[in-house]
């Protein structure tokens, strides 16, 4: 009923509201148990990651506490990970169609896989494990927010977050052609041309270090797209952009980007979302 627009207004009927409230009173213990279990998993994951990979400039005697936290969190993390894996497999077996139609379950699958790689696989390098750990923390936080959304008090806020995010990214994908077009234009205008440089020129540096190129943000198409996406937030950093190569064209296209994308398009997306 809640997934059908024609019947959503019936959820406000007093009889249905009373029925849903009675059902909530019967199953709320299951919600709190599941929430407590997942909070234990998330806290164990964060403590294990920070005790294993984070850098703390602490004294030698305090490192014993970190080692103890690492071992305790590792045990709790392994136990809760197996329970979480069993829960996902049970849900997948009980209702596979409904399971794979829910976006939250994909987050849990990726979270279980990444956590298992952090805990059990020792082959990745230290830097790779730190990157996986950062992804795991974000996924755990997203899942915790969605799990709080199952409570009637927070459900409206989480539904608004999901709906606005979905609408925003849906329209953003549609208008991404303009963003990519501007990014490629910036790459052509602002990227350094190695053939135009004077090979006999000598760079004067101070303290034996070279300052980063002004056009490093547009050094290749991928970097240009990334820089353009950052510019959508209003972080233009126009003072570091070299407009001297094509002063008229580059300034016109940059001004068009500011008005058309940063101002008009973003406000349009906010209104549509």
List keywords for this structure.
2 domains, 0% strand, flat, 273 residues, mainly alpha
Strand tally: 0
What's the average pLDDT? 80
Order of helices and strands: HHHHHHHHH
Please summarize the sheet with the most strands: none
The secondary-structure class comes to mainly alpha
Shape: flat
- Rg over alpha carbons: 26 Å
User: How many helical elements?
Assistant: 9
What proportion strand?
under 5%
Distance from N terminus to C terminus (CA atoms, Å) equals 24 Å
Summarize the amount of helix as a percent range.
Answer: over 70%
Uncertain residue segments: 197-214
- Give the oligomeric state of the chains in this entry, treating copies of one chain as homo and distinct chains as hetero: single chain
How many domains comprise the coordinates? 2
Keywords: ANK repeat, Ion channel, Ion transport, Membrane, Repeat, Transmembrane, Transmembrane helix, Transport
InterPro entries: Ion_trans_dom, TRP_cation_channel
Subcellular location: Membrane
GO molecular function, one term: monoatomic ion channel activity
How is this structure best described in words?
With 273 residues, the protein is mainly α. It folds into two domains: 146 residues, no CATH class; 84 residues. It is built from nine helices and no strands. It is a multi-pass membrane protein. It is found in: Membrane. Keywords: ANK repeat, Ion channel, Ion transport, Membrane, Repeat, Transmembrane, Transmembrane helix, Transport.
């Amino acid at each position: 009923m809640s997934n059908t627009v024609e019947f959503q207004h019936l959820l406000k009927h007093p009889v249905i509201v009373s029925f849903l409230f009675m059902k909530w009173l019967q199953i709320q213990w299951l919600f709190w148990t599941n929430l407590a279990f997942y909070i234990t998993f998330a806290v164990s994951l964060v403590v294990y990651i920070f005790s294993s990979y984070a850098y703390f400039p602490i004294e030698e005697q305090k490192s014993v506490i970190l080692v103890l936290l690492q071992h305790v969190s590792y045990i709790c993390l392994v136990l809760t990970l197996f329970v979480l894996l069993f829960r996902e497999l049970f849900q997948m077996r009980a209702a596979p169609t409904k399971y794979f139609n829910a976006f939250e379950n994909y987050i849990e699958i990726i979270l279980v896989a990444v956590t298992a790689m952090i805990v059990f696989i020792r082959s990745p390098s230290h830097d790779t494990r730190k990157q996986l750990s950062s992804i795991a923390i974000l996924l755990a936080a997203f899942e915790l927010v969605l799990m709080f959304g199952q409570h009637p008090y927070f459900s409206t806020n989480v539904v608004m977050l999901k709906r606005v995010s979905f609408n925003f990214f849906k329209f953003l994908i549609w208008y991404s052609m303009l963003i990519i077009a501007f990014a490629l234009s910036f790459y052509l205008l602002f990227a350094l041309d190695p053939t135009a440089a004077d090979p006999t020129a000598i760079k004067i540096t101070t303290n034996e270090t070279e300052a980063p190129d002004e056009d490093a943000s547009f050094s290749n198409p991928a970097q240009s797209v990334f820089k353009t996406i950052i510019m959508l937030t209003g972080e233009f950093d126009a003072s570091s952009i070299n407009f001297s190569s094509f002063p008229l064209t580059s300034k016109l296209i940059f001004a068009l980007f500011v008005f058309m994308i940063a101002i008009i398009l973003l406000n349009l997306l906010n209104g549509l979302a």
